[in-house]
Amino acid sequence: MSRRADRLFQIVQVLRGRRLTTAALLAQRLGVSERTVYRDIQALSLSGVPVEGEAGIGYRLRADFDVPPLMFTAMEVEALVAGLRLLKAWGGGALAAAAEPALEKLMAALPPPRRLAAQQSRVFAPEYVNQAHVREAFDVVHGALGAHKLLQLDYCDVQQRITERVVMPLGLFFWGNAWLLATWCTTREDYRSFRLDRCRAIRMLDDQFHETPDRSLNGFLRAVRAGGS
């Protein structure tokens, strides 16, 4: 029964987020047959959920219908708990500090069975040592990303050579046990990535930048896929 209840709730969430949803799409999303979807739609209608549409065309919820938020499945709750724990352990100081109250609010909003399951999660993210400078660097980069401002880096590469770079920050990626900063490097006039733990100094400049098609996060990802970065 709990499996079906979760599935019915997921159907409502999908219908809320789309203008028209076919049974085939719902079946693919939920991993069930279309016949099961038809039965679930009928069950929702009989329970008072205003589902509009018909088989073969698609379904949608009446515009004025709403359901309480935070009705997560057990697996979704554990995913959120694990994600917040990872951020608290490996994120920058500001986001790590926000993770704990966010987790407390999540726990307070959950119904008792879901709260108990979340508290019993065995997925942990222990903090690693000597990461204070990485947390500080993360906060500077995170601020620059939000403000679209250039960064100045004093960077030590794998050969222990130190160079000064001015870069357009495009994104932060967690790679194994290190944060990588994706950039357009104005010094090299090309895409480059830098490990935060190798930044001897990092400073946000006053100059702002605007992404363009050839100097953007999507462009960086295309270059990585093409082996050019």
Structure, explained:
The protein has 229 residues and is of the alpha+beta class. It folds into three domains: 2-61, Arc Repressor Mutant, subunit A (Orthogonal Bundle), CATH 1.10.10; 74-119; 132-225, SH3 type barrels (Roll). The chain is 45% helix and 24% strand. The chain is built from eight helices and seven strands. The strands form two sheets. A five-stranded antiparallel β-sheet has the order 6-5-4-3-7. A two-stranded antiparallel sheet has the order 1-2. Helix 2 crosses helix 3 (34-46), helix 4 (74-90) packs antiparallel against helix 5 (93-109) and helix 4 packs across helix 6. The longest helix is centred in the middle third of the chain and has 17 residues, at 74-90.
